[in-house]
Amino acid sequence: MGRNRLEAFSDGVIAIIITIMVIEMKVPHGENMAALLPVLPVFLSYIMSFIYVGIYWNNHHNMLQASGKITGSILWANLHLLFWLSLFPFVTSWMGENHFATAPTELYGVVLFMAAIAYFILQQRIIAPGAPTLRRAIGRDWKGKVSPIFYFIGIISAQWSPTGAKLIYLGLAFLWLIPDRRIESLLIDSKE
């Protein structure tokens, strides 16, 4: 299978994930701005999840651009990542509908943790058959190494402070929003 086909399939799944997340938001009853207050937690959880899905989409795109041959193990690793991303609509809705209660916030963290692990596995599967550009670009990848640790801390802390867990998840999202130009710059350099 070619890289373009894998990327198109992944883009389609991610687009569906975002669509499902927005469909899960219910229109409030009422015609004034106060009617929005009860759905504010759902909207806030949607924003955070949208940011996370966008981060994965962006990094996934850059990573595939640096990939070489697409193997069967890459296909399965990609499906593994898409599986965890496909759970975002469920955990987003559950967390928002229950005003960031303990169990939904913990499960949200589990999905974030597992998506990070799945992304790491996909990255390693792409590097394995020979993607020297990606290997050089990733280097030490400190964000990729610390994120699962902090997701795990968020999961544990949700038992005592769901707000603390949300702040950890949000902080990591903002960490990843800061563009990481390593792959992009190496791809540009290799084309010149």
UniProtKB/TrEMBL annotation:
Keywords: Ion channel, Ion transport, Membrane, Potassium, Potassium channel, Potassium transport, Transmembrane, Transmembrane helix, Transport. It is a multi-pass membrane protein. The keyword RNA-binding does not apply. It catalyses: K(+)(in) = K(+)(out). It comes from the Bacteria. The chain crosses the membrane at residues 12-29, 35-55, 75-95, 107-128, 149-178. The keyword tRNA processing does not apply. It is found in: Membrane. GO terms for molecular function: potassium channel activity; proton channel activity. Its main location: membrane. InterPro entries: TMEM175-like (IPR010617). One of its GO terms (cellular component) is membrane. Pfam families: TMEM175 (PF06736). Belongs to the TMEM175 family. PANTHER family: ENDOSOMAL/LYSOSOMAL POTASSIUM CHANNEL TMEM175, ENDOSOMAL_LYSOSOMAL PROTON CHANNEL TMEM175. This is Potassium channel. It comes from Acidithiobacillus thiooxidans ATCC 19377.
